[in-house]
Write a structure and sequence with these properties.
Length: 125
């Protein structure tokens, strides 16, 4: 009985959708923020030297404020799959974004979610 439950639990967790870093719970705020984007910088996640295999899908959600010129300030890591390379790459890319001037004033909070593959081996010929 216990083994059956354990196998079922492992199978069910394999079928569970991947963690979305708060995308569904914060959809309205993220959509509002995306509408203000004027320039979107590419997300460049560093590949570790010992990378092998297809890599892992990772995500990170950042909250931030905008100054009166549409530049990002006060970046805060809100949710993540705890992959340091992804967290750093997302914050670095976000600093390069430009937005329409802060519609909600400089105290309004905005949010974006970044997704990427970490640890993928480079393609070999």
């Amino acid at each position: 009985m216990t083994t059956t439950f354990l196998v079922f639990a492992l199978f069910a967790s394999a079928l569970a959708p991947p963690y979305d870093c708060g995308l569904q719970a914060n959809r309205a705020l993220i959509d509002k923020t995306r509408a203000l984007v004027e320039y979107r910088a590419p997300l460049n996640v560093e590949t570790p030297e010992m990378a092998s295999g297809p890599g892992r899908q990772e995500c990170v959600r950042l909250e931030f404020q905008l100054d009166r010129y549409g530049k990002v300030t006060n970046i805060v890591l809100k949710e993540s799959t705890n992959e340091l390379l992804m967290n750093v790459a997302a914050a670095h890319a976000l600093r390069k974004y430009t937005f329409k001037s802060a519609a909600g004033g400089t105290h309004a909070v905005y949010s974006l979610m970044f997704e990427g593959v970490v640890g993928a081996a480079p393609p070999y010929p």
